[in-house]
Structure formats: structure tokens, C-alpha cells
Automatic annotation (TrEMBL):
Organism of this sequence: Kribbella sancticallisti
Predicted membrane protein YciQ-like C-terminal domain sequence ranges: 306-534
Protein name: DUF2207 domain-containing protein
Keyword Membrane in record: yes
Record has Transferase as a keyword: no
Superkingdom assignment: Bacteria
Keyword vocabulary terms for this entry: Membrane, Transmembrane, Transmembrane helix
């Protein structure tokens, strides 16, 4: 390869690498030197060298520091045996603590060779700005003039110029001379070598008749000369260009303004949520109030009648208490319909000991003439459709598809009774939607503020308020005053179910009354003791048929009732609510 093409290729490759990082620049320079040394060391047949190494024989620079902090730079580069593109570098970004960068900008660049303008390309990549001059051949003198903005930084005792014009050059600089033209100077320093080297330059002094003078002899390829010149307060204006690195710590700054604002938003949000709950979500009743009530009353001829107050049904009781329709409310309603004579539940025989149990639900043709609540009618239609019987294992897609109508009817029923001013599910849905909206807005603001500023904490505070709204929204359905007396009655009934001596019930009505109370105990608690009371009606070891509402398979005994009902509840819940 001809020497000119060889040098041009190496220079272009170095130029690309040098724009990536200063370390890459240094390595490229060392590689360039090693390869060109091989070329320069080649010998002809007479044993003499055929070429010399490319070098910078002299670098002379005069830097005038203006009062406003601008640097007016004039440079002379004397190049020897340099062919192709010549590229020099200047450190234009200095990383400081607290994610702060001081940035310098090179402006008004002009390059001349032999008094004629030369085309040059100024680019900045990372911490380094590069100036590339093409079409260099042999021994050349280049004259650079440019302005540097942002090189003067404020210090405790004044200001300082921090400038590194010789950085990562791919060639050896044999002799470098830099002279500053400045007003009064307080101190100077100069270091040569790696970018963070503490090796002093050959000369750094404050002359009596001239400005600060710096010299460096024999600067190897890839090395840096960095200078500092200090000034008294008010002598030179600071013009450092400050930029901030995008870091997690800075994006979520805890500086006074950001922290106080975020805490204020959190505090105001918490107060607003509290007031919102007090005004809209707090029940207008006293849940501790107990109103005398009983599921049983003395009828004619000393018989005991089952008379729940206000004709309360188990599904309605469960919905009133926790303001939502749970699986237990629906399963308790099915058992209640069976106990009242509208459905019969028949446990099928097990094919094997380990076979999954199943039950047949059958609609009773001659059911009592009592009027069912709307949600009960909807539930019966959802279970049976056009059939008179169905297996629990087959209660599948059709029932689940119609379960929403059952819930709608039950919610509408508690509103119609005046226990709520609006449907609890719609109230929760409304506030959940608002909470999700505020949360999403907070997340978006967090990302935007973190990327564009230091106010990420403000976005997090808004997000926290949105999450708080989601939590408070679950408790926003408020019971109306009309629910107060009913809740008091429910409290009394719960106490009765948990504490009543079941043995006091008339023996001839024992099974009937315990069966009627069982659905309420499923919802309010104490179901085990009422099931046990039903089991206690078994007075022999013979197999039992069961009750009018629940019948067991062949060989079934009342002692199996607790397991049978437990399995029934589990399978009904799975059939109705599992998707």
C-alpha cells in the first residue's frame, strides 16, 4: 500500500474511534504510532530508513481571556510527515460531583494553511470535541483560531479557567508552548499525561512581564495537557455552562423545594381522602347498635314459628353486612331455597371411595306459594333454565353467564329496601375508575418529570394519592339511615345463632327449625353448631334418608352431613364462580 493511502486510512479510523471516548482516542493514537513506526523503520537495500515518523514539531498557542470569560484562542501547529486527515481534540465536558457537568463550546472556528482557509469539521461526541482537517501532506503549518465559551467556573475565592486543548492526539508533540493574555492572576497549574494525571508540565509559571506561560516537551501520543488559571473575585466573569446528568438520584431529588412539595401533595391528598370518606363513604348508622330480634317466635298452640325480622333473606343479609355479593351469599341462598321447599338437593352415590362427589338439584313442582324475591327467581332460572333438574357438576357456562343478573337483582333489591342510596358495586366501580385514572396519571407524570427534571418525587406523591383513592374507594358505599335498624337486628340474630341453646327447641320441630336457621348461620357464623344439631336428631345406627331438602345416597347416615354440606358448598362455589 502507498504510504499516503496507509496514513490516510489510519487517520480516518482513529478519527472515528476518537469521537467515542477519550480512552479510545488514546488507544488509537498508540496504535497509530506503533504502526507508523513500523512503516518509518522500513529500510531499503542500502540499509537506510525510507521514511520518518509523523510528528507535531511545535504547538504554539496564545489564549486571551476576556472579562466576560470568553477564551480567544490562536494556535499554530507545525506538522511533519503528516499525510491525509489531521484531527485534534479538546476536552469540552468536565464531570463534577452531584451529577453536574461543566460544558465548553467551541465557536467561530477558522483553520488556515499558508494563509489560505482550510475546510475543517467540528464534531462533539461524549466528553470530547474534535476538529478534523483533511488533505494534509508532508510538512504543513496549520493556524487555528476559535472561541471557547464556558471555560470559566466560579470557585470559593474567585474564578478559574480550566482548559485542555491538547487531548488524545494521535501524534507525538515535540514542543508545546501556551501563553495566556490575562488580567491579574492568583494561581496557575498544569498537568501532562493521562486525562487524570497529576504529573506537572515541563513549565508552568506566572511571568512578571507576560501572562501565565506553560510548556510541555515530548508529549507522547494519546496524552493530555490540562491547565488551570485562577483569578481574584470580580476580575473575570464566570460563564460555565452547567448541565445535569440524568441519574436516578437527580431525577428524584430530595432538595428542599422538591421534598416539601411532594410532602405537601401527600398531606393534602391524605386530608382530601379522609374528608371524602367522612362525607361520602361513612355509614350513616351505628354498627354497634343492637335491636331486639330473633329468628324464632312463639306461635299458636305453643309451636315455634320461624320468623326472620323484615322477612330478611340470607343473601340480603350478607350483602348488607359487607356491601358486596360473595360466593357464600349465593350458596346460602341455594340452601335457603331448598330448606323452604323450592329445591331438593340429592347427593348421588359415589362410584368409588375416591370418586368426586356430585349432587342433583331438582325444582319442586308443588313448591310453597310464597313469593320469591326477584334475585331468587333469577337465580332459579339461571340454575335450571328450561329443565327441572341439573347436576352440580354441570352448572357451568350458562349459570356463570347469568350470574351477573343475579347480582344485579340482589344489588337492586338492597337499594329498593332503602339500605343504600345507590348500588354498592357501582359506587366502588366509580371510585375505582377515578383511582386508576389518578394512579396512571401519577405514573406518567413520574416518568416525564424524572426524564425532564428533578421533580420525580412529585409524580410519586400523586401516584400514592391515586393508590390511596383505590383503597378508600372500596369503602365508599355508604349505608343509608334505613339500614341502621336492620343492622341492629342482624347483630341480635348473629348472637342468637352463636349462643342459643339449640336443645331448647321443641323436639318435634327440631330438624325443621335447625334447617331454617342453617342458611343464616352460613352467612353470619355458627353453621357448625346448627349442623351438629341436625346430626343429633339421628337416634339409631340405621342408614338415613336425610331431610326433605337434602337426601343422601344409599348407605348414608346423618353423621356424614357435615362433610356432605362442606363438599356441597365447595362444589357450588366452584361451579358458580370459577371461570
Amino acid at each position: 500500500m502507498p504510504r499516503a493511502d496507509f496514513n490516510l486510512t489510519l487517520s480516518i479510523r482513529c478519527d472515528w474511534a476518537m469521537r467515542l471516548r477519550l480512552l479510545g482516542v488514546s488507544l488509537c493514537a498508540l496504535g497509530f504510532l506503533a504502526l507508523t513506526s513500523v512503516q518509518a523503520g522500513a529500510t531499503g537495500q542500502d540499509g537506510r530508513s525510507t521514511a520518518a515518523d509523523p510528528v507535531v514539531t511545535n504547538y504554539d498557542s496564545e489564549i486571551r481571556v476576556e472579562r466576560d470569560g470568553l477564551l480567544k484562542v490562536s494556535e499554530t501547529w507545525k506538522l511533519s510527515n503528516v499525510t491525509g486527515t489531521f484531527t485534534r481534540f479538546v476536552v469540552t465536558r468536565d464531570h463534577l460531583q452531584d451529577d453536574v457537568d461543566h460544558v465548553q463550546k467551541i465557536e467561530d472556528l477558522q483553520v488556515k494553511a499558508g494563509g489560505q482557509d482550510k475546510k475543517s469539521e467540528l464534531t462533539t461526541a461524549g466528553d470530547i470535541s474534535s476538529i478534523a482537517v483533511a488533505d494534509i501532506s508532508g510538512d504543513t503549518q496549520l493556524d487555528f483560531t476559535y472561541t471557547v465559551r464556558g471555560a470559566v467556573a466560579e470557585t470559593l475565592n474567585g474564578t478559574e479557567v480550566r482548559f485542555s486543548p491538547l487531548t488524545g492526539l494521535a501524534l507525538t508533540v515535540q514542543d508545546a508552548n501556551i501563553v495566556y493574555s490575562t488580567p491579574e492572576v492568583t494561581h496557575v497549574s498544569c498537568f501532562a499525561g493521562a486525562i487524570d494525571s497529576n504529573t506537572p508540565c515541563t513549565l508552568a509559571q506566572i511571568a512578571e512581564t507576560a501572562g501565565p506561560t506553560f510548556k510541555q516537551q515530548g508529549l507522547p501520543p494519546g496524552n493530555t495537557v490540562r491547565m488551570t488559571v485562577g483569578f481574584p473575585k470580580g476580575e473575570i466573569g464566570a460563564n460555565a455552562i452547567v448541565e445535569y446528568r440524568k441519574t436516578f438520584k437527580r431525577a428524584f431529588s430530595t432538595d428542599t423545594a422538591q421534598l416539601i412539595t411532594a410532602l405537601a401533595v401527600l398531606l393534602l391528598g391524605a386530608v382530601a381522602l379522609f374528608l371524602l370518606y367522612r362525607l361520602r363513604g361513612r355509614d350513616q348508622v351505628d354498627p354497634r347498635r343492637v335491636v331486639p330480634a330473633s329468628l324464632f317466635s312463639l306461635g299458636q298452640d305453643t309451636r315455634i314459628d320461624f320468623t326472620p325480622p323484615a322477612d330478611l333473606r340470607p343473601g340480603e343479609v350478607g350483602t348488607l353486612i359487607d356491601e358486596r355479593i360473595d360466593p357464600v351469599d349465593v350458596t346460602a341462598t341455594i340452601i335457603d331455597l331448598a330448606v323452604r321447599g323450592h329445591i331438593t338437593i340429592t347427593e348421588l352415590e359415589h362410584e368409588t371411595e375416591f370418586a368426586r362427589p356430585d349432587w342433583e338439584l331438582r325444582r319442586v313442582a308443588n313448591a310453597p306459594s310464597e313469593q320469591l324475591q326477584r334475585y331468587e327467581n333469577v337465580l332459579v332460572r339461571a340454575i335450571f333454565g328450561d329443565s327441572d333438574s341439573v347436576l352440580v357438576s354441570e352448572l357451568g357456562r350458562q349459570v356463570r353467564a347469568n350470574l351477573g343478573e343475579v347480582q344485579d337483582a340482589l344489588y337492586d333489591g338492597v337499594v329498593k329496601r332503602g339500605w343504600f342510596t345507590e348500588r354498592p358495586d357501582r359506587t366502588r366501580s366509580l371510585w375505582a375508575t377515578i383511582g386508576i385514572g389518578v394512579t396512571v396519571l401519577g405514573v406518567i407524570l413520574t416518568v416525564v418529570l424524572a426524564l425532564l427534571s428533578t421533580w420525580g418525587l412529585l409524580g410519586l406523591a400523586i401516584t400514592a394519592v391515586g393508590v390511596g383513592l383505590l383503597i378508600v374507594g372500596r369503602h365508599m358505599p355508604a349505608k343509608a339511615p334505613a339500614a341502621g335498624r336492620v343492622l341492629g337486628q342482624v347483630a341480635a340474630i348473629r348472637g342468637e345463632l352463636l349462643e342459643m341453646d339449640v336443645s331448647e327447641l321443641p323436639s318435634d320441630q327440631h330438624a325443621e327449625l335447625c334447617s331454617r336457621a342453617l342458611p343464616y348461620a352460613v352467612v353470619l357464623g355458627g353453621s357448625e353448631r346448627w349442623i351438629s344439631a341436625l346430626v343429633a336428631t339421628d337416634s339409631d345406627e340405621d342408614e338415613d334418608e336425610g331431610f326433605h331438602w337434602y337426601r343422601g345416597p344409599r348407605g348414608w347416615h346423618l353423621q356424614y352431613l357435615p362433610d356432605s354440606l362442606r363438599n356441597l358448598t365447595t362444589n357450588l362455589t366452584g361451579a358458580l364462580f370459577t371461570r
